[in-house]
Amino acid sequence: MKRPFLLAALCLMALNACSRPALELPPDRLATQAAATRTFVAAMVPSSTPPPTATPIQTATPEPTLTSTPAPQPTETALSFPEDDARFGLSYDSPSVVDDFSVRYRWGEPWFPGAVIYWQDASMVAVDYLTDNYVMWSTSLLEARDFYVELTARIDECEGDDSYGLAGRIGGDLVNSGYTLEFSCEGAYRFRKFVNGSVISLVDWIPNAAINAGSDQENTLGFLARGDRLVAYANGTYLGEITDRDFSTGLFGMFANALQTESLTVVFDNFRLWYITP
């Protein structure tokens, strides 16, 4: 099996399948991670009630305060895409789901020896402690067939092929199958496919100037899936696309993948989802 793909929440139920050395977490982090993981695992138990799909996530509205009335501002023109853009027809200013991570436990907080993903200060933080080929992602119960997703990521100190990614159409008995769009520290992108823990490279690393390269850089990953068409964007700019028809629907996930920098840390924010109708 090539480059196994492990989901931490499931490793908690079968630790003998995880070969990484033990990692001691601080007591406060251990307690919060355990609580988060229990919540996530419980949410993943099948039930007769289908998971939510197109229900927008609502964020709290602050109470009005007495202030002076600001001067009128120019009205912004809604962003539209040309006909040759795969996002053509998308109502970009009106996503179906918006999650700024201000509310906790909408995403799993898995951890296992070697990697952890947790909520902090209205963002999701992924830390991959070991430079190996293991990958762990955090998922929510959001599910989609055809979609366009944007997710902002800021990577700390990194080099070379250290990377982070956005997964879509995640499924399988162990939630370890799906497609990933990944950005590397040196400013390249790739598509991979995970099939029951084995990985297939659909597009190997391709450099692109639209991706901000280096440490302490922020990028917005854009991932569109329509039928067998998978399209990559960086900061709103088209990167490339491939076709594959193995997975047609599933969940979403985010992850960091350390290959050269131990304790690689990536902070995710501003998840936005648009459902695409056939």
Task: Describe it.
It is built from 2 helices and 15 strands. The chain has 278 residues and is mainly β. The protein has helices at residues 8-11, 27-43, and strands spanning 97-99, 111-112, 115-119, 124-128, 138-144, 147-155, 163-171, 177-184, 188-195, 198-207, 217-226, 229-234, 237-243, 250-257, 264-275. The protein has a single domain (8-45, 82-275), classed as Exo-inulinase, domain 1 (Jelly Rolls, Sandwich), CATH 2.60.120.560. Strands 1, 2, 3, 4, 6, 11, 12, 13 and 15 form a 9-stranded antiparallel beta sheet that branches. Residues 1-69 and 73-77 have low confidence and may be disordered.
Descriptive keywords:
mainly beta; globular; Jelly Rolls; 9-stranded antiparallel sheet; 6-stranded antiparallel sheet
Question: Any chance you could write out the topology, listing elements then pairs?
Answer:
Blueprint: H1 8-11, H2 27-43, E1 97-99, E2 111-112, E3 115-119, E4 124-128, E5 138-144, E6 147-155, E7 163-171, E8 177-184, E9 188-195, E10 198-207, E11 217-226, E12 229-234, E13 237-243, E14 250-257, E15 264-275
Antiparallel strand pairs: 1-15, 2-3, 3-4, 4-15, 5-14, 6-11, 6-15, 7-8, 7-14, 8-9, 9-10, 11-12, 12-13
User: What is the residue-averaged pLDDT?
Assistant: 80
Task: Name the beta content range.
Answer: 35-45%
Task: Estimate nothing, just give the exact number of structural domains.
Answer: 1
Using only C-alpha atoms, the radius of gyration works out to: 19 Å
Q: How far from one another are the termini?
A: 35 Å
Task: List low-confidence stretches.
Answer: 1-69, 73-77
Helix content: under 10%
At CATH level 2, the architecture is Sandwich
Number of helical regions: 2
| Structural category | mainly beta
CATH fold name, please? Jelly Rolls
The coarse overall form would be: globular
Order of helices and strands: HHEEEEEEEEEEEEEEE
Query: How would you sum up the major sheet?
Result: 9 strands, antiparallel
Assign the CATH superfamily: Exo-inulinase, domain 1
* Count of individual beta strands: 15
| CATH class wording | Mainly Beta
